[in-house]
Amino acid sequence: MERLEKKRIKGHTYYYYSKWGRVNGKSRRLWQKYLGKLDDILHAVEARGPRPHCAEVFRFGLAATLWQEAQRANLISHVDQHCQKREQGMSTGEYLALATLNRAIDPQSKSAMFDWFANTTLRRHFPHASKAALASQRFWDHMARLDSTLTLAIWKDLISDVIRREVMDLSSVCYDGTNFYTFMDTFNGRCHLAKRGKNKQGRANLRQVSYALFCQADTQVPLYYEVYEGNRHDTQQFPVMIEHFQHFLTETFGATAHVPQLTLIFDKGNNSKANFGLIDTLELHYVGSIKLSEVKDLAEISNQNGNWTTCQTLGLEKTKCFRVTQDIYGKARTVIVTYNANLFQTQYLTLQNDIAKAISELNQLSEKLQDRAQGLIKGGKCPTVDSITKQCKTILSRPYMKSIIMYTVHKGSHDIPQLDYDIDHEIINQLCDTYLGKNIIITDRSQWDDDQIILAYRSQFHIENVFKNMKDRDIGSWWPLYHWTDQKIHVHSFYCTVAVLLRALAHRRVKEAGINISMKRLLAELDDIKEVVILYPRKRGAKTTPQHTVLSKTSELQQSLLSILHVKPEEMVPLG
């Protein structure tokens, strides 16, 4: 029998729902549930419930996705197999996994690691990660156990496991290199990797670290990487990386990896006769490009010539090409000459901007010389013909400017040099009909059709996007770099590359499901999905605070992403 019971306690009336039955022949209360006061019952009937005390918000979508990828890749176990756990606390694998996830989600310095970690749902998976455990010193106590040899061994285990599990096609691989500037002190002698060199972000005044990468041609999945001295030229590093990558494949896959079947895709910055000689010796298949200035006979063929054939493949609608065989770097090679309307438009606008800027600077220089000749400018050292000529060469340093803009420097009155210049419009028309819009692709894959070769070469945009994302100040996995020894930079480059891997695997699944979305958009959409923990006032006599957990409102795209990535709200271990 069930009853609604009323109890008077300290002048207040409370209601209970109870069930009664006979026990040993006597009527006894079997159980009861507290319902509260009349107002509480009214609120419950009206589905209002008790008023929440507060709510806490945690980052869920991106954290859960990348943690899932880290679990699939067995990241922690791969690290711990090479670096056994210390006597107490978190393992080296757990520290490195957290550093990797931080780089992939929201890069922070190690001193800010716990503040970031405490606001994510990763707290469920690292219950021993206290503020003291995640202090910068504790982190580097564990990372000091890793050197470049050990991180390479861990990477081999990790990536070979990923390649087998994901059944990745390694028939085409892209290679490229970049560099990252640092704010390292000039006189810091503890670091030999950071050197001054030609910086790709225009910061040649700073010491930099160079980074070379091989990645799968169809995705952004990294396969092999190295960091090296910032002053080493791409053409010098290229043969080193080729040999290291071949050795890596042989070690990782043994006799099952027939390396010559791999097609290497790279850009013209790695070209040299010696490098192509190495490729020929190793019998590597390749798709690359060559500077127009090295094959002027092909570059000067009119864009209106009848040899051109329009490409038919999707994505190449505005491209036309023709094929020839030509001796390049000491051997007959297949050459595909391409013309792309979009590339022409971009290069033409760039050319016009360069001309306008050069004319403006030459005009300013000419006016200053005229003012000095007229006595309007009297101070300072008087320029010479040689100094003005040198300034003109600097102004006209951009491509094609020296041939488009003709100038003469001669002595005027009072031996003050004067400048005359003019634009050769015939040269501009000739460039538009020949050089602009062209690319010269070189390959040994003569059995491939033209469209296939062009698409293979253009797949370099994947590795270019990897570098672009690594340097992005919003989502960049490399920044910030607050290290000043070679060992720490090697560890930093390792977990940054693993972060790129976890992102790329998630992006690959989404693309394969038919959602064409950029990496930056994917990360933003997932990171926008939050877990909200609603906390209620603790009831009298209760040991825990009542709470309810829900996800933030998601868009249709976000729901699709969670479904594709198989990310679901987990067993709600209290976070609030």
Describe the main β-sheet briefly.
9 strands, mixed
Structure annotation, total helices: 19
Provide the residue-averaged pLDDT: 88
Question: What percent of residues are in strands?
Answer: 15-25%
Percent range for helical residues?
25-40%
By DSSP, the count of extended strands is: 17
The low-pLDDT segments are 256-260
How is this structure best described in words?
By secondary structure, this protein is α+β, with helices and mostly antiparallel strands. Helix content is 40%, strand content 22%. The protein has 19 helices and 17 strands. The strands form 4 sheets. It has a 9-stranded mixed beta sheet, sandwiched between helices. A 3-stranded antiparallel beta sheet has the order 1-2-3. The longest helix has 33 residues, at 341-373. Residues 256-260 have low confidence and may be disordered.
Summarize the structure.
The chain has 576 residues and is α+β, with helices and mostly antiparallel strands.
Observed structural traits:
alpha+beta, three-stranded antiparallel sheet, 19 helices, 576 residues, 17 strands, elongated, nine-stranded mixed sheet
List the helices and strands and how they pair.
Elements: E1 2-9, E2 12-23, E3 26-36, H1 38-45, E4 54-59, H2 61-72, H3 75-82, H4 92-105, H5 113-117, H6 136-143, H7 148-166, E5 172-181, E6 208-216, E7 222-229, H8 234-253, E8 263-265, H9 273-282, E9 285-290, H10 296-299, E10 309-310, E11 319-328, E12 331-340, H11 341-373, H12 385-395, H13 401-404, E13 405-411, E14 417-423, H14 425-433, E15 438-443, H15 450-458, H16 461-471, H17 486-512, H18 519-527, E16 530-535, E17 547-551, H19 556-564
Parallel strand pairs: 5-8, 8-9
Antiparallel strand pairs: 1-2, 2-3, 4-16, 5-6, 6-7, 9-15, 10-11, 11-12, 12-15, 13-14, 16-17
